[in-house]
Structure prediction request, 520 residues.
Amino acid sequence: MPVLEPSQVLGNPLKDRKILLVDDDRLNLRILAGILKPEGVKVAATHSGESAIEEYSRFHPDLVLLDVLMPGIDGLETCRRLKQIHGEACAPIIFITAKHESEDIVEGLEAGGVDYLSKPFRPKEALARIRIHLQNKVLLEEQGKLVDQLSRANAAKNRFLGMAAHDLRNPLVSIRGLTEFLSDGTVGQLTPDQLDLVSNIHDASQLMLTLVNELLDLAVIESGRPHLHPQPTSLEDLITTAVNLANMQSAKKGTTIRFTNGTTLPKIAIDADKVRQVIDNLLSNAVKFSPPQSTVSVGLEPEDGQVSVWVRDQGPGIPPEEHGKLFQDFGRTSVQPTGGEKSTGLGLAICKKLIEAHSGTISAANGPDGGCTFRFSLPLTP
Amino acid sequence: MTFAGKILLVDDEAHIRKFVGLILKKIGTPTVLEAADGQAALAVYAQEKPDLVLLDVNMPILDGLQTLERLHQIAPEANVVMLTSLANRQTVEDCVRLGALAYIRKDTPRDELSTQLQQIIQEIFEPDAAAAPDNPAP
Prediction:
């Protein structure tokens, strides 16, 4: 879809534009028409507020020149009614006032007029003012169209991203899974060199899968589709499962994840898959940024109508000046993984969006003795 | 219901059949049959009467939903578990409405996938053993 060039927008703004003239004084109407018609303006004229409102709907003007003092409803009331009927789409309205009627001018601008012209008219001034407001109107319309085009393009990008990521997923799942079968001896023992190669393939496919999943998540979140399916869920069970599985992974690094839970909480209505995703992400980050042989602590505690889950690592903490980056898309900080792990820079941004979709909050704070604690809180009742 | 150890794995992607097939072997499934599309799956089912069908959702010719519907027309007793790549709730709900017993996501890490499959087999064929004390069978 071609995007309009500015030159198309800023040509002669008067030619073929439609202006509605409203004045009970026929001489004024003739004078205004005499100024405008030579510029190529299409003019319609009416003599009262009531007839102007009718004529507006028939003529669809690009601009209205409106006398303030008229029998019947005056110009101010006519302006208010036009704004009420046509809302945002209403053409700009310029008031016609006798000289020095400053009260009228102020009231007119408050009623929604964009400008005023004083009688007697100075043709050049009148044309200059009308031109500016027509130009503004065109620019506003073009801006609206551009915003429209951009949001459509963005939606198309998200759809494309979603589809591409989706189709990449299955092959990656197989590559990752099949290398696991190669390295665990299911189909015979490998030599150390072969194992090393297979392990590289595995890690690369894992990283790609994570990236693809995160891009897909982001595309789904950004496309604004409602994506939460809350079910009564035991957070305790959810954390226990996540910790057990993460412990299998972290054992490679000698790191232990400990979940201590002092309380029993009722089930809460959350989208278990999404919250699990957040927990998995925080656990994998904690292992990733803690030195080998660390202990990662996980806790669950109720507070004030909410429940908080926290994950504390033994890493170096987040430099205070980089805190702002943490939850942004691709917002990688200078802190490096300690075991050569990779990060996409999308994980925490997605966590934040998922937690906020649950009306919850997520934050990070460095501990007094080092390490960083990530905490998210969810309302007990949605 | 006893588990005779025959599972039909239906997926149009050969690498997924290889991967899930290896998991099924690893958890001790004696016979893993394969089909690459819904139509082939119906034919294999009619001939082999497997204990369990693992059925992909997105497939050419007959997709998972259509296959499930036709399978249950010819064999209402068939045990079907859906294999999905994306937890598409609407599709999963449709599958459950059409009689699928469960669904599993293919992108689940291998060891967890393996546990899930074991649990599902246990729940279908040995429901008494699978019922935990705090989760009594209805």
In short: Chain A has a mean pLDDT of 87. Chain A has ten helices and twelve strands. Chain A touches chain B through 20 residues (CB under 8 Å).
